[in-house]
Hints:
The complex is a heterodimer of chains A (about 475) and B (about 50).
Chain A: H1 5-15, E1 20-23, H2 33-43, E2 49-52, E3 66-69, H3 75-81, H4 91-101, E4 108-109, E5 120-123, E6 145-146, E7 149-154, E8 159-164, E9 167-171, E10 174-176, H5 186-196, E11 201-206, H6 211-217, H7 227-235, E12 240-243, E13 252-254, E14 259-265, E15 271-273, E16 276-277, E17 283-284, E18 287-289, E19 291-299, E20 304-306, H8 313-334, E21 338-342, E22 352-357, H9 364-375, E23 381-386, H10 394-404, E24 411-414, E25 422-427, H11 443-448, H12 470-479
Parallel strand pairs in A: 1-2, 3-20, 4-12, 22-23, 23-25
Antiparallel strand pairs in A: 2-3, 5-19, 6-9, 7-8, 7-11, 9-10, 10-19, 11-14, 12-13, 14-19, 15-18, 16-17, 21-22, 24-25
Helix pairs in contact in A: 4-8, 6-7, 8-9
Chain B: E1 7-11, E2 18-22, E3 32-33, E4 40-41, E5 49-50
Amino acid sequence: MSKDLRTYLAELDRHWPDAILRIGREVDPREFHVSAVLQHLEDRGDQRVVLFEKSLDLEGRTTNFSLAYNLFVTRELCARAIGLASSDAKMPLSLEFSRREARRVEPEIVPLSRAPVKEVVRTGGEIDLSRVPMFRYHEQDIGLYLTMVAVMKDSEENFYDVSFCKNMLVSPKRLTVSLQRKLHKHLLNIVEKNEEHDRETPIAMVIGHHPAFYLGAGALTTFGNDDYGTIGSFLDQAVRLTPSESLGKDFLVPADAEMIVEGITPPHSAEIENPFGEFSRYYQPQVAVPYMDVTAITFRKDAIVQGIFPGHPGHFNLGGIPKEGSLYREIKRVFPGVQAVHMPHSGVGRYCCYVSIKKRREEDGKLVGTVPHVFTNQLQFVVVVDDDVDVFNEQEVIWAAVTRARFDKDINFLKGMPRSDRVIIDATVPLNEPFPKKAVVPREALEACVLEEWIAPAKSAGKKAVGAAPSARKARHAGS
Amino acid sequence: MPVREDIFWVACPKCGEKFYCDVQLRHGSIKLMCPKCHHRFLDSESPQIIE
Lengths: 480, 51
């Protein structure tokens, strides 16, 4: 069976029936209904996938569309999306991500008649983006946005690039394509190559697919990689592709998507967008970006319009998890003693990195701390800890930093970097001088202690963390 | 600081809403758009610019 968003939601229902929160009340895109609900759930620590079953369109008309959010809100969900157990959601997930990046599963081409995304086709005068639910999430967001991925094809070298790219509604037939000229992004490379020859750029937005499709789109591949093959690796099956409706038969789009918005980006096009609350949790400044004139919208009759809540945990996971595996691999090349790498939510999955090592030489912490800065230009702050510290537990990392780092010697700066110096904190225990020993409960005592035999059963199960192992849940109840 | 963008603040000449823009839009020919009232204006028309 071909994997798509529906097969994934059905799988969640089958194996983890509590993982999806279904909301039957009607959502109005003209209000902040979606982000208000998602913020409340986040504040309560409720980490379920959210399906808004009814949505109005931008004119307040009833639609057949539903909305899916929070597909990436926990590492456990991201692990499940690529077929791993919830218990593998820490470093095993990052390492599997790295393995999948290096693998390819070639796509399969299917005729239009076998493409669910072609159930409804709107072209020419039928195109009306006001019938598609789009949303503002934060108070000063300038407009209504789609927040998923774009597909572009490099016509000279014949590969597809699939990358996250938001779109702001400009008019019923026009969207922005959020590619900032001063940042180097793969999609922008294709646009600029076409502009050099005064050519327009075909583009297709993929609004709703299996979460592994989007995790594959977020993989750290080099420009020139045919991303459909990488996405197949993450899906663990060929992506089914079908000819586009309006961009030519040789421009292929995902057949199992919920909705595809096709369009043309004219050379040197420019439209204003932002403020928009982005992954940094700040508003992006207003800027001029290219736009696309929409040439077709195809969708399933009851399409599930998928979105990301920008600047919130799902967004952080999409930024951080792909980097962890890659950084681990790069550090391992020069320092075999690396144990784990984590890009925490406190650094929005981009700005901060924790690395644990088996330290052999006094300089290891400082040297290892330089490596992540080389490979991720957004990174600002690296903390290196010993392997007795769980880098996925921020409290432990900060504890190590405040008890093990000598602030006059162990905080180092990479000077002269763009915007700001970069920081490395060596929070490892010094090898060649006396240092206190970490206090721990005896391992034998822990193993001999069956907690259930010591405590009364909890009166209320409370909210279950999605994907938490039974033993972990019990431990949390016991500690609360 | 990664979020310390090269920006300038403007005020909308119509409703007074303050927001910030990338410096690439300073002294440019593209009209800015107020996120509150969607009024389009050149930065030179703003009653207040902080840069």
